[in-house]
Amino acid sequence: MNVRRSAAALAASAVLCAGAAPAALAAPSPSTPPAPVIPSGLYGKKDPTYDGVWRQSFALLAQNTVGVKPAKEAVDWLAGQQCANGGFASFRADAATACDDKTMFDTNATAMAVQALKATGGRDAVVKKAVDWLKSVQNEDGGWAFVPGTPSEGNSTSIVISALAVAGEKPAEVKSKAGKSAYEGLLAFRLGCAAEPAAGRGAFGYQPAPDGKLPADADATAAAVLAGLGQGSVVSPSSTDTPAAAPACPAGAADPAGAADPAGAAQGAAGYLAETLKKDGHLTAVTPGADQPTADTGNTADAVIALAAAGHKQSAAGALEWLKTNSAEWAKDSPAALATLVLAAHATGTDPKSFGGTDLVTALNATGPAPQTSATAEPKPNASDAKDGGDDSNVWWIVGAGLAAGMGIGVLLSGRRKKNQL
């Protein structure tokens, strides 16, 4: 399960069910509501409630990146999910019904829709409204939450910053009503040289734990690399390729010079990812109900993209090879997972049509409406480069978690680190 979609379910359950949690637990529903009908223009066949816009955006972005012109109905479906105020929900089964005060707006879905619609072109008005909405829900600390009106967290802040950069905004100049910039909001989640344990230095956190400490989070760190570099999910292969270095922490200094500027922080975060990958050749996570970590395919792909963006393709080489061998089952029939692998291949100069024996492009195209054109021999660069998950096949454990009474939304959202694979 994609960690960002896990957050969507947690957020939805926390906000919608917090007040009624005791009653819900005392008298559980005898049956699960039927899944929505899958629209013809949507990629993927699994329940889109928590990831419809997210997976559609990734699918369109990846197709565009490799020279595939997506189906018009697919682009129309995504644009049609926008609410009148410019924001997007995770999924709207009936886009003809106006959004209201019960609509669960989703900053992550909105941000990815910005990237996808900017890339596919012809939807400038939709993109502008979405960008304006994202600016309107910026928290006073400069960051963003998954659900507007709740505390900022590192992952959503990074995803929004990347979208702003792709749309032509300057994140350093996007400021809250309190005068805090988007980058100030992001850097608040950075673990500097004073962080303990030392292995987490350079990383970014998702949200503080109940004890107030900010633990390192690989997902948030990978997203922060792209945000700090002012890049979106589409990363063109870099002309430079050097090993990523662990953050330097001089004796007696809180941080080395430049470590706290966005680009410097991004390089430190890349160093953390490279060091973390050395242990197993991939990232790991503890899934619900387990007491031992297992391979985290989605975040490993995100880390590969982040390292490539930072100019450290060789530091991602081992993880890329691991993905080629171990990602097929994880990505099967999942548009967001397949798209993420396409973007990882693109970022590293790898052929997405021969990725560990899999033609990712053909597999992605098969999950939705037939594209208008097929991929050409060479992937095309995206205009935003000058300036990235999967279907929820097992999401209901999260909804159950959200029904637990007495937990704040920040704590619930931090549970996104304990997830199933896509």
Question: Can you walk through the features of this model?
Answer:
There is one protein chain. The protein is mainly alpha-helical. The protein has a single domain (3-14, 45-233, 259-415), classed as Glycosyltransferase, CATH 1.50.10. The protein is 43% helix and 1% strand. It contains 17 helices and 2 strands. It has helices at residues 3-17, 21-26, 52-65, 72-80, 107-120, 124-136, 154-166, 182-187, 218-228, 262-280, 297-309, 313-326, 328-331, 335-347, 360-365, 396-402, 409-414; strands spanning 284-285, 294-295. It has a two-stranded antiparallel ribbon with strand order 1-2. A hairpin with an 8-residue loop joins strand 1 (284-285) and strand 2 (294-295). Helix 3 (52-65) packs parallel to helix 5 (107-120). The radius of gyration is 20 Å and the shape is globular. The relative contact order is 0.18. Residues 233-261, 366-391 are annotated as: Disordered. This is LPXTG cell wall anchor domain-containing protein. The chain crosses the membrane at residues 395-413.
Order of helices and strands: HHHHHHHHHHEEHHHHHHH
Question: How many structurally independent domains?
Answer: 1
Termini Cα gap:
3 Å
- Looking at the structure, the CATH topology is Glycosyltransferase
The CATH class name reads Mainly Alpha
CATH architecture descriptor: Alpha/alpha barrel
Radius of gyration: 20 Å
Largest sheet: 2 strands, antiparallel
Give the % helix.
40-55%
Q: How would the global form be characterised?
A: globular
Please tell me the overall pLDDT.
85
Q: Tell me the strand order in the biggest sheet.
A: 1-2
How many E strands? 2
Structural class: mainly alpha
Strand share of the residues?
under 5%
Total helical elements:
17
Poorly predicted runs of 5 or more residues:
1-5, 15-28, 377-422
Organism: Streptomyces flavotricini
Transmembrane segments: 395-413
Domain Prenyltransferase alpha-alpha toroid: 70-172
Signal peptide: 1-26
